Amino acid sequence: MQPKIIHHCFTTFKDTSPLVHNITNDVANNTVANVLLAAGASPAMVHDIKEAPEFVTLAQALSINIGTLTQTTLQSMLATAEVAHSQNIPWILDPVAVGATSFRQQACTELLKFKPDVIRGNASEILALAGMSSRTKGTDSGDSVEGAKEAAQQLTQYAKVVVVTGAIDWVTDGTQGYAVDHGHPMMTQVTAIGCALTALIGGFIGANTSKTEEANSDSLLNAATTALAYYAQAGEIAAQQAKGPGNFYVHFLDALYNLEAQTLIDNLRVTSS
Ligand SMILES: Nc1ncnc2c1ncn2[C@@H]1O[C@H](COP(=O)(O)OP(=O)(O)OP(=O)(O)O)[C@@H](O)[C@H]1O
Ligand SMILES: Cc1ncsc1CCO
Ligand SMILES: [Mg+2]
User: So which cofactors does this thing need (predicted)?
Assistant: First the structure.
């Protein structure tokens, strides 16, 4: 992917400051909101079925995360995803721990009917969502990104773009693929860093696609790749300064806030693969 495309997606995101509607999990709510704010977007956590399907029409993107799924929030997720799908509001699904229980698996099957634009999960989640065997450890991954590539490709029958995160992130639309070689293992030591990435990708696809027509896979791929590079570069910067997970989190928010387009481009490690 050409650096100028990444530069364009990044500046469009910053200029747009998209409103991202999140129906995320109880653990992640605060982190997701702080990450979106630090990056320059606007977060809203609106969960109840009485208002979420109405609220989503105000947002540039919807992020749904099943981390602490309940029967009640599932109904709200389905109703809200249906509106997003019918009104061309791009939406992203984070299938947290989908391999752990049949409730999560069935919930994802129902959510996939409303065609998420992007699915983002760790390697175990992507494998499980595709119906392949995985070594999921609750919400943590026990599998490699490389081993989940075929699963990601299969999932492009449900979503235009699929993102697998891990040591080297991989993003595909089923034909093209990009590896994003940034990040730091410390990112796995703070809960909900993956959930917040999902919401940030939501912001990037919301800012970089048109609301008047269905998002095309090139725009989604470019936007998702840019979000991945930005996020994981911020992780690298934060890890250089941090002594452990506690102040890593603080440095991470600061790095997201301060990282500039030119720094992102100068340090870019994104390859076609
Ligand atoms: N070993 C690693 N080295 C470098 N970066 C990593 C590593 N593992 C994960 N990351 C980065 O951490 C971020 C979150 O990805 P991860 O796969 O850990 O999400 P997750 O398992 O869904 O997290 P959570 O469920 O806790 O929110 C991504 O930006 C990814 O690039
Ligand atoms: C720890 C945890 N449990 C359910 S969701 C969540 C946040 C990371 O996905
Ligand atoms: Mg996760």
Answer: Mg(2+)
